[in-house]
UniProtKB/TrEMBL annotation:
<protein>
    <submittedName>
        <fullName>AraC-like DNA-binding protein</fullName>
    </submittedName>
</protein>
<keyword id="KW-0804">Transcription</keyword>
<dbReference type="InterPro" id="IPR009057">
    <property type="entry name" value="Homeodomain-like_sf"/>
</dbReference>
<keyword id="KW-0805">Transcription regulation</keyword>
<keyword id="KW-0238">DNA-binding</keyword>
<dbReference type="GO" id="GO:0043565">
    <property type="term" value="F:sequence-specific DNA binding"/>
</dbReference>
<dbReference type="InterPro" id="IPR011990">
    <property type="entry name" value="TPR-like_helical_dom_sf"/>
</dbReference>
<keyword id="KW-0812">Transmembrane</keyword>
<feature type="domain" description="HTH araC/xylS-type">
    <location>
        <begin position="467"/>
        <end position="571"/>
    </location>
</feature>
<keyword id="KW-0472">Membrane</keyword>
<feature type="transmembrane region" description="Helical">
    <location>
        <begin position="399"/>
        <end position="419"/>
    </location>
</feature>
<keyword id="KW-1133">Transmembrane helix</keyword>
<dbReference type="Pfam" id="PF12833">
    <property type="entry name" value="HTH_18"/>
</dbReference>
<dbReference type="InterPro" id="IPR018060">
    <property type="entry name" value="HTH_AraC"/>
</dbReference>
<dbReference type="GO" id="GO:0003700">
    <property type="term" value="F:DNA-binding transcription factor activity"/>
</dbReference>
Length: 578
């Protein structure tokens, strides 16, 4: 009897709730429209509609409704730049695909106009979308178009924003020094100007970017200055969201300083604060989970780390993968290896190779040779071990054989390309080690053989300058970073034209290449003979070799030797060259 009574209540309840579930989406739309009647909205001025849009921005459905009302009003009024603004407002709360569509509409409408904001704003935001998608080449292309428009119209706020985003691009491609320089220039600019409408927003974004760049450079002490600066600024106006963001950076600082428990405590608190916020999104989830997982691995608590890594595995895909998120998959591979879970290990290795290949294709014109944790030999060994294990554990069905064959083809393709490049670098390295002394002897012989009558200078002048150049080289005076053609000519009591002619003729290179080659030769010789020198940071090695920056050092080294300095240093350490 009791069962029948209970069942008699269930039946009408089911029929009562089913239509409610079916009409939920429609009811939600009616609810939004009841909050903001479209006719009433269209009677408001544009500033008021935009104000309501910003107020309800965290509620995507409401914000989208208001943005479309703004666009409808502009289309009714046939107000060209208001229509463009409407496209921009809708794009901000759209997914990446729709966002590009609305931004293209904005650009198409204003492309031929001389306007202070448009179409530069459209190109800037297209660049941001492509950057989020990991398409750095397309991002750079749009940033440069936006910069051209902004500079022609002297739009300082757009120039600032574009430089900021190019800084993020440099950071992503490994040019950390270049990104820090851009961010510091922006910081100087914003400190001395009061014309920016959203000065606070520009300031904290710059402080965040600088902190993050120094973290990427593994310089937590330098990062701490900007983290604390950001914390102070956010406290001043009680900005809880920004305060939470800088607390995350503070937690990372603790992690990098090996204060793991303090870092965990900070990150857990911030994760909860962010989750309670309406603005908590996928990027926040990936960022916080990755930092927590890394700390647990450092503490050798792999099972706890896995709880966060498995979440990251579901979140990271082709649409949001970047080198900053690569450690999540690397740690996951390490965990599966620790658990001897070969199937998931293979699956994750394949996913990592696939995502890396897509990233390299998307960014083929940018620096794509990022440092990989798993080199060719290791991947080949893992592949063979996994395949052997799978053959033992599972029957050799056609489906499994086909799957393994496909994986083999994919792995072989990537391994071949990586191996080919590695062998090229090895050949160049070995030639460099073997031929250094031979090269010096050849250069001495060449200087003796050249006929001094071939250039229009007195023989005494030629002999004098060659003797001074020899002294200059033997005493390593080229290590002076301030050396220029004019200053060296003055030191030699001659003019720059004579000195340039002597160097071009007897050294077979211009002055800049002559100095750079001497510095690179000095660096190579010292690296071969000085074990301590090999242990220095690359920035210090560059400075000790006479270069003013890591970038100029790397370019000169690559140009002369065909390999980058970090590869040379790593291999000379491994080979223990004396």
């Amino acid at each position: 009897m009791i069962k029948n009574i209970q069942f008699s209540y269930i039946i009408p309840l089911v029929f009562f709730f089913l239509p409610l579930l079916k009409t939920y989406s429609y009811s939600k739309t009616l609810f939004i429209q009841s909050l903001y009647n479209q006719d009433s909205i269209l009677n408001l001025d544009y500033n008021k509609i935009e104000s309501l849009y910003k107020k309800d921005f965290a509620n995507k459905e409401v914000a989208q409704y208001l943005a479309k009302c703004y666009l409808s009003k502009a289309q009714i009024d046939n107000a060209k730049y208001k229509i463009a603004k409407g496209y921009y407002l809708i794009s901000k709360i759209s997914n990446n695909t729709d966002r590009l569509k609305y931004l293209d509409s904005l650009i198409e409408m204003t492309k031929g106009d001389i306007h202070y904001i448009y179409p530069g704003l459209g190109y800037l935001n297209k660049g941001r979308v492509y950057f989020r998608l990991g398409e750095n080449s397309n991002a750079l292309k749009n940033y440069l178009i936006a910069l051209d428009y902004a500079e022609k119209r002297n739009n300082t706020s757009q120039i600032f924003a574009i430089n900021h985003n190019i800084g993020l691009l440099k950071n992503s491609s490994g040019d950390i020094d270049g990104s820090i320089k851009l961010f510091k220039n922006n910081l100087k600019f914003i400190k001395k100007t009061d014309t920016f409408k959203n000065k606070y927003s520009y300031l904290v974004n710059t402080l965040f970017a600088l902190s993050n760049s120094y973290h990427n450079a593994e310089l937590p002490d330098s990062a701490r200055t900007y983290v604390n600066y950001g914390l102070r600024e956010s406290i001043k106006i009680d900005d809880q969201e920004t305060y939470s963001t800088f607390l995350i950076l503070s937690g990372i600082n603790s992690y990098m300083s090996k204060n793991y428990n303090k870092a965990l405590d900070t990150l857990f608190k911030i994760k909860k604060r962010l989750q309670d916020s309406l603005l908590y999104d996928e990027a926040d989830a990936i960022y916080t989970n990755l930092q927590i997982a890394k700390i647990y691995f450092k503490l050798n608590k792999k099972e706890k780390a896995y709880n966060y890594l498995s979440t990251l595995d579901t979140l990271i895909d082709e649409t949001n993968y970047s080198k900053e998120r690569r450690p999540a998959l690397e740690l996951l591979i390490e965990y599966y290896k620790y658990k001897n879970d070969v199937e998931n290990q293979l699956k994750t290795v394949t996913k990592l190779l696939h995502l890396d290949s897509i990233t390299n294709i998307k960014n083929e014109n940018l620096k794509s040779d990022l440092v990989k944790k798993y080199d060719t030999a290791k991947l080949l060994k893992e592949r063979d071990t996994i395949i052997k294990s799978l053959r033992i554990e599972k029957s050799a069905s056609k489906f499994i054989i086909l799957t393994i064959s496909i994986i083999l083809i994919i792995l072989t393709f990537f391994v071949y390309n990586y191996y080919k490049k590695k062998k090229l670098y090895e050949r160049r390295f070995n030639l460099l080690i073997e031929e250094n002394s031979i090269k010096n002897q050849k250069e001495e012989n060449h200087n003796k053989i050249v006929n001094k009558e071939e250039i229009d200078l007195h023989e005494d002048v030629i002999s004098d300058l060659l003797e001074k150049l020899e002294t200059f080289e033997n005493k390593n005076l080229f290590l002076d970073r301030s050396i220029k053609l004019n200053s060296l000519a003055e030191r030699f009591s001659t003019n720059s034209a004579y000195l340039s002619k002597i160097i071009n003729h007897y050294k077979n290179k211009n002055f800049a290449n002559y100095i750079n080659d001497l510095r690179v030769d000095y660096c190579i010789t010292r690296l071969k003979s000085d074990k301590k020198f090999r242990l220095y940071a690359i920035k210090y090695i560059a400075e000790e070799s006479g270069f003013s920056s890591v970038q100029s050092f790397s370019r000169a080294f690559q140009k002369k030797t065909g390999i980058n300095p970090s590869y040379f240093i790593k291999n000379i350490q491994n080979q223990k060259v004396e």
